[in-house]
Specification:
about 290 residues, mainly beta, 1 helix
Length: about 290
Amino acid sequence: MAVTLPDAVLARYRRFSLYNSPYRAHDGGCAVDLYPGTLRDGRTTAAPSPVSGVVRETRTVRAPPKPYAPEHDHLIVIDCDGPDDLAGLTARVLHVEPTVSAGDRIAAGESLGTLVRAGFFAPWVDNHLHVGFRESEQNPYRASGSLPLEPGVEIEPLAWDGTGEVVATGETYAVLNAPTHPEPGARFVGVGADSGSVLDGGLPHYEGGGLLGPARSSSGAVSLNGDRLGVLDGRTIDWDDVVVTANGEPITGLSLFCARDGDFGAKLIRPDHELEVGQWVRVRVRPGRRS
């Protein structure tokens, strides 16, 4: 049974993704990463709760060791009483250092604490809340076991020919000015596959991706600009052995997600890249062995 993420939840955030993560809790789209508008310089921001309810427990958990992140993350377990679609379920929230405690009643949108960067993050990932839902009697501490999620909002697929100008860079990524959000703030958009659905995931640097939004089939090959990406099973894509290139040079991959902010554009993942602001780029996906 899929749990619908209503507009009352998702509209609180600038971006979201069900598949763009190496964390196994996201397998099959069973968790969502919610981006409230974090800053690219890594500074932390408030963490608005996606739900209302009572905090059951908070605990500190060990995170994978990474040189750029602390060794610990935090888990917040909430017994939900709203929005209505989520009432009666238990929410698991990670990547927030809590300012709430067991027994606290919280309202949707109230800050749970401060967003943190833990070792679950790749260095190119912006700060976010990781959220999963399960039945109240289920074990809330296991990483896997959350219910599959379905976005209950319109997601518009944007046509993108694979080209654009670099408008922002970081140590591990570059952002292009295309595709452009046609009406920022009004609805969520994402890079459209050739089938007309929205691509979600890390291509191909994470194990797989997903297909969201309109015109979604349940099987068959998935492509972008005629370049085959992988095979669909339900809504999950098993990436082929492919290589993403920028101006003919291999890069780590494409970060694919849903966004409603005006800064949306294709995000190229390339640690120690040489791409510069103002540079024109053509992106293609070619057969080849993933590194």
